Amino acid sequence: RAVDACPDCLAGKHTHLGSGDGLPDVTEPGEVIAFDLWSTREADPFTNAKGLFGAICLATDYDFVYKMRYKTEVPECLKRVLQEASEHGVTVRRFHTDNEYVCNTPEVRMACETACQPWGVLFTTSNAYDSSTNSKIERHWRRLGDDGRPGFLQSLLADKWYICCLIDASAKHKELPRAGTEISPRMLFTGKKGKALPFKPFGTLAYVMLEHELNDTTTSLAKPHARARAAIYLSFHVTGELTDTHQPGWVLHVPD
Description:
Blueprint: H1 7-11, E1 33-39, E2 51-57, E3 63-68, H2 74-87, E4 94-97, H3 106-116, E5 122-125, H4 135-155, H5 162-175, H6 185-190, E6 205-209, H7 211-214, E7 228-236, E8 250-253
Parallel strand pairs: 1-4, 4-5
Antiparallel strand pairs: 1-2, 2-3, 6-7, 7-8
């Protein structure tokens, strides 16, 4: 416990960094990927999801965060992780979770194991719930909240946008160098440098040009005629949905 920590940090246990004693020793990307679930009371405005699936590579800190409506979508999330890792040339050897909510029934565990079998991936859980065996991803949830909260509060957006804020924090986490180094999780996981320049603070006011009107030379535009629409910057490159195509581009929301 830090002596000079403020009351809010102490109340939120932000000085408790957790222990890594229960984590296995890893040396290669994809050797062990730990995953967990996160939920909120406010549904995502696009998918109506109230939860997130999160996974992180223990060796590189590279993460995978997807919006999730039901716990039964966990096997599909695992397949998406395997597909994305394969696209980067990484072979996942093992998935691990702490057995708290994900595999609380034999049917759910069998569905997860079935999703991993075609890829030859080992699926493991702790015998009983023990957060220390999954501390990496649990600390990562707190890190995403700490990283995304300042921009979210500055944006003054409603709570329903908080899931989008965490998706944006995850995208930025992969591109920015880890503390005390010049190497990002993306470089460690894929061997390629990331690009942080396109990212903007979450919730930034943006404008989308009305191309159909500006490109139509036969349309006479009056001076007060709208040339653009106000929009909200949500992220770059990803929306957090399982159907993401990961094509570069800004993710903007234009209110009706």
